[in-house]
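dumping this here before i forget
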Amino acid sequence: MGMPMSSYLLLKTIADGMDNKLLSYSDAIRAIKDFNLYAFILHDPEEDKEFHDTLRKNFDRLDYITGEKLLFFALVDPPGEWLEHGRKREYYRRLYRYETEELLSPHNQIFSKNPGVTALSIANMLKIPYESLPCIVIFSNFKIKEFVWLRTCSEHLEKQLMELGYIAARSSENKLAYTRITTYARESKDYSYDDYYSYYYQRHDFIMDKIKESNLDLCGGNGIQTLKDRIAKVLSDCLSAVVFNASDDTDIQRIAEENRNNFIENLNNEILKFKEGNRDGIDEESIIFFEELCIQLITSLFNNVSYEIKDGDLVIDKKYLERDSYLMLKTAHTVFNDLKGKNINGESEYDFTASAICFSKVFEKEINLSQVHWIRKKLGIELPSYFNRYQPYKKAIYSKGTSSKKIDFNKKDRWSSRWLPPGMGESRICWEDILKTDVPIGWTKDELNDLNNRWWEIAKMRNKSAHSELIGWEMVEKLIKHFEHMEERQYFKLLSEMKQRFRSG
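structure:
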């Protein structure tokens, strides 16, 4: 069965594990406890227009073929024929009349001022690579921290959801697990993940094993992720900024505003704690975690800033950038300009760490798919077959001169088939060394020396941003100046041409 992802309130209530003024926890749980499996379809409506149209047009059919034990959510406005019989569903009738109307009304669909940024934000918080969208996020309980994700497409979505519906129908009942969890939570007032009964874990493991064993990876991408918090909490935190800015319901808006403010405060505290603890340098895995925090903060602030930047005013031409690089640049630039104005006007003082990190992330993404892939090709990675992908059973190690340190250009994420590029500084050192004997097609020596200097400066500023000192808007301006310099000399055009050659062969 399907449900439009219009109920932030439902997610929020389940995440909190307690009643609020609009919906009781027990009613929220009763509405979904008879399902054995849940799926969240994540896509960028602007980038994946064909998929979005297919999902919306076939929502009613997908609702029917997935059966009664799988509940899937989608960020779409469902068609009229589904709305007619959706009101008769048991899981809707179990909710208060107010919430039933709120769930079903197409006017309450979750919209942001940029759906692509919302998709990027959710993907980042779920630790799913943006290039793997559209995908299906699969979990056995809203209180769980672990989930499986599968890449999908217009052609295979129906088959994947139908198979998930079969797995859900053949799994042990979810009702008992939810009843025990809800009873325990009500009596003990303790909603911690570690206190759930072993029955729940056994059922969860059974379902996850069935998913892993099934032939569902039809689009060349999958993974398993374990989050720091429960899925309902992660999704409600992520959507709170959107709902606060878009909802016409003042009660829901008030709940979302409180959620958003707490979430942003916690993110700021985590970023500050990370910086204070980083006195002797950090490994690349830690930097990735830090970048995720900064992206969460910037995308959460984006929906509530008054400043708007048009594509033509961006420091880099959109046509040279990957879709997620473009979204990151536009989000970071919008939030930076807004906060910088408030800082200069004396309205408030801000730490611009997250802005600096997001700008440098744009450069890192583009350089990884161009100059770093030049190194990968020289080390024997088969392109375009493994463009931006890990190549199984292939070593691609580079050692600079007589240095004992070896840099792996074909490293695999341990939870998925995702390729993990070396750190920005490590890549630059190897790249600089190879330039002594070879030069990429389309570049002059002067251009490469200049790019090397920019690369080095951006890496330095990124590393400085991750240390204990607060970052002022002036340093972000320096980053932007580097981008302007490279755009004027058409470096991003050259990088884009490299990407296309490596991507298409």
